Amino acid sequence: MAVKTLIFEQNYNVGEPMEPITFSLFREQEGEEVCMTLSYEFRQSGTESVTCKRFFFPVQAEYENPLLSWYNLICCSNNYGPIPVVSYMNTSVQNGKKLAATIYPESAEIYMQTLAQVGDDFHCFPYHTLEYQYMLYISRKGSLADYFDLDEILGIYESCDVHLDREKMEDYFSRELSWFGNEDVCPIRIHFCEGDEEFAVTGLLFGYPVESTVAVIRKTIDLCE
């Protein structure tokens, strides 16, 4: 029988009035297959823990890098995370947790302060303001090739029977990180991307585990709610 191991627990306050909620991430392995399970529990209500997502992938998909983490995935603003943790996303790039993010200042004043304070080590500029008035794109400087070994990444995907186009990946890996936030030139819609290579690149950009992107491409995610 597979043993379920707790990877982390994180408490948040959500809703109106603010109610404490605990998110938990578990790992279990049976043979060469791994399942990562995300669940939550409302503490005040005394409800039982509820499973909301399960990611299934081969064990060879697991890859460690300080710029990738399940925490980045759980706290993101798209359909992977149960809630967007804006305070985390707004500082994750500056704190060395990931390469890029879309961030959401709460007001025009904070928006301008953010632009003024990010410093010379980062790109920071408005992104898709039709989606959210104060949204910014922020990234480190350099390219994906400065932070990841393309051959290693392609090898992981190949071992999981996911065959990415090398020429397309080489092009994406050569681009300055600011390029991905420029909607006028970049064909990838980073919030709504399509295509295996685009998912793989966006996952690295936003700091998601390679194994979670493998599950996305292989369509081996259970949305339990």
Topology readout:
Elements: E1 5-14, E2 19-30, E3 33-42, E4 50-58, H1 70-74, H2 86-89, E5 100-103, H3 108-117, E6 122-126, E7 136-140, H4 150-159, H5 166-174, H6 196-206, H7 210-218, E8 221-223
Antiparallel strand pairs: 1-2, 2-3, 3-4, 4-8, 5-7, 6-7
Helix pairs in contact: 6-7
Structure description:
The protein has 225 residues and is α+β, with helices and mostly antiparallel strands. It is built from seven helices and eight strands, in the order E-E-E-E-H-H-E-H-E-E-H-H-H-H-E. A five-stranded antiparallel sheet has the order 1-2-3-4-8, covered by helices on one side. A three-stranded antiparallel sheet has the order 5-7-6, with no helix packed on it. A hairpin with a 4-residue loop joins strand 1 (5-14) and strand 2 (19-30). Helix 6 packs antiparallel against helix 7 (210-218).
